[in-house]
Write a structure and sequence with these properties.
This protein is an alpha/beta fold and about 375 residues long. The protein has twelve helices and 15 strands.
């Protein structure tokens, strides 16, 4: 979906396909038919943006085989879909029964992360619509906090920037990569991103602001965006998502409600803000199991809940943080980013009674999320384009 900002520029809205497991090119093509096109039809649009997730196998195939890339591009066109952004965070296995810590491998100290992201950039250059010259890729925030080789990581990102420069010279397409702060990682907050990104000081390497992650770490959107703009950090894209919020985690009924979201597939890092600073656990179950996390103030958990439908009381979502962030990013005299992506990948990880039981229900839910995002954008003065 495209929108005209009051300054005349185009802002793109997509939804991320990491909600649909696929590891191969054939799986991606099936996604387009079974999921993405039905969402577009529900929205009554001739064209729908998707934030494509390409696992390592699919990315290698598309990068090595020009015919395969042409096939994907033709299929996107045939189904009324377009791609201006890729999710390069998960490397592979995101549809596995247990993802947890595996999603942070390989990290940016591993040469494979550089090669994978370079391949994604080359693929994206070939997928961009004819009238679009800028593409974006989100990636993991360097590494999980327990292992990080800062020297090798900085060298890899500098090499990536050089490759992106060369790619623009070759193709005329400008590609940028955004580190995506996430709780528990080397870069957990936007503040953590400032030092490494200003050290690299290259406009092609910036940040991806995920509003669920921002909220989970109790960051104030205005303070975060101000810090990024003051430091001159490029906001490559923003993922529009909402975290799970528990206002009174000491109450038994709240604990019971939270326990329904403690599932085995993904990590649900949980945080609370205390007078001594942010406290947290790696997963929701750890917070619920004992006294690892103080419960005298609200908890937030890294669980991407549907944007349009907050969890039932006594829980809620951090949708207000998303709204405040979006206002700062695109509600001013010029957009601070032009790539927005709804990223609720946890539909099938919701408590059983809330999960979509068929593809049609999932398509309805994704369409409802995009409708909410569209209404927020038009409410900020952007005009939806055909």
């Amino acid at each position: 979906m495209r929108f005209r900002h009051p300054d005349g520029s185009t802002v793109h809205l997509a939804y991320c396909t990491n909600v649909h497991p696929a590891e191969t090119l054939d799986g991606v093509l099936t996604q387009l038919r079974d999921h993405c096109e039905p969402v577009r039809r529900r929205l009554g649009r001739d064209r729908l943006g998707i934030g494509l997730w390409l696992a390592a196998d699919a990315a290698r195939t598309l990068d090595a085989d020009p015919a395969a890339l042409r096939t994907l591009r033709a299929e996107l066109d045939r189904r009324g879909l377009e791609v201006v952004t890729l999710n390069g965070f998960p490397y592979e296995g995101f549809g596995a029964g247990e993802v947890k810590y595996r999603v942070y491998k390989p990290d940016w100290a591993d040469p494979e992360r550089l090669e994978h992201t370079t391949a994604l950039a080359r693929v994206l250059a070939g997928l961009l619509p004819d009238d679009v010259t800028e593409g974006s890729i989100s990636t993991l925030p360097l590494a999980w906090r327990t292992s990080h080789d800062a020297g090798r990581t900085e060298k890899a990102l500098r090499t990536l920037a050089e490759r992106l420069d060369a790619l623009q010279e070759l193709t005329g397409r400008s590609l940028r990569v955004g580190l995506e702060p996430e709780p528990g990682c080397v870069i957990e907050t936007t503040c953590d991103a400032l030092a490494p990104l200003t050290a690299i000081a290259h406009p092609r390497i910036g940040i991806c602001v995920d509003t669920c992650h921002l909220a989970t770490s109790f960051e104030d959107p205005h303070t975060a965006v101000d810090a990024l703009t003051t430091a001159g950090v490029t906001i490559v894209k923003s993922q529009l998502s909402a975290a799970l919020h528990a206002e009174h985690p000491h109450l038994p009924e709240v604990r019971t409600a939270l326990a329904a979201f403690d599932e085995p597939r993904f990590l649900h890092q949980t945080r609370t803000a205390t007078a001594a600073g942010l406290r947290g656990t790696d997963d929701l179950g750890e917070a619920l199991a004992g006294e690892a996390l103080p419960d005298g103030a609200p908890w937030r958990a890294h669980f991407h809940v549907p944007l349009h439908e907050a969890p039932a009381a006594p829980l809620t979502s951090t949708l207000p943080v998303l709204k405040d962030t979006l206002t700062r990013l695109v509600g001013g005299p010029r957009p601070l980013t032009r790539h927005l992506e709804v990223e609720t990948y946890t539909w099938q990880a919701l408590p059983p009674e809330l999960r979509p039981r068929a593809r049609t229900q999932l398509a309805d839910g994704i369409a409802a999320e995009l409708t909410l995002a569209r209404d927020l954008l038009t409410g900020l003065g952007l005009k939806e384009l055909p």
